[in-house]
TrEMBL record:
<protein>
    <submittedName>
        <fullName>Cell cycle control protein cwf14</fullName>
    </submittedName>
</protein>
<dbReference type="GO" id="GO:0000398">
    <property type="term" value="P:mRNA splicing, via spliceosome"/>
</dbReference>
<dbReference type="Pfam" id="PF01125">
    <property type="entry name" value="BUD31"/>
</dbReference>
<keyword id="KW-0539">Nucleus</keyword>
<dbReference type="GO" id="GO:0005681">
    <property type="term" value="C:spliceosomal complex"/>
</dbReference>
<dbReference type="InterPro" id="IPR001748">
    <property type="entry name" value="BUD31"/>
</dbReference>
<dbReference type="InterPro" id="IPR018230">
    <property type="entry name" value="BUD31/G10-rel_CS"/>
</dbReference>
<comment type="similarity">
    <text>Belongs to the BUD31 (G10) family.</text>
</comment>
């Protein structure tokens, strides 16, 4: 995540409204630092990055909700936040499409990285799974992000 309020001489200050959400973005930044510095003992290799994916998702969802759901920030501030890397623009673009409203991460829909050229198990609706079958995405730790759930 980019540093907050690191204005150089040639950089423009953030648009109006940034001060209102700066504290929340700082909390996400602190959570990210904690996740990056957390102990990796006893975890599998792919489990170590799950908290980072989850915090990135939460931060992007926060900005998405502010702009699209609550209409609490301006288009100028929203575009600035995306440009500065505070939110994942590609993930937000998918959330706007039908069927992807709850998508956890972009890796779960990339078919090139899977064995059978299919999406991740977390994209399967829960009603199509066997009873008591627990699912857990290898990429991000998601336990189900199908929009029909």
């Amino acid at each position: 995540m980019p540093p907050i309020r690191s204005h150089g001489r040639n950089k423009k200050p953030p648009p109006d409204g940034f001060d209102d959400i700066e504290d929340t973005l700082l909390e996400f930044s602190n959570k990210m630092k904690d996740a990056e510095n957390a102990s990796h003992e006893g975890k599998k290799r792919h489990e170590m990055i799950w908290p980072i994916f989850q915090i990135t998702h939460q931060r992007s969802r926060y900005i998405y909700d502010l702009y699209y759901e609550k209409e609490a920030i301006s288009k100028q501030l929203y575009d600035w936040l995306l440009k500065q890397g505070y939110a994942d623009a590609n993930l937000i673009a998918k959330w706007k499409k039908q069927g992807y409203e709850k998508l956890c991460c972009l890796r779960c829909i990339q078919t090139k990285e899977t064995n059978f050229s299919a999406t991740c198990i977390c994209r399967v609706p829960k009603d199509q799974l066997q009873e008591n079958q627990t699912i857990e995405c290898v990429s991000c730790g998601c336990r189900g992000c199908a929009s029909s759930d």
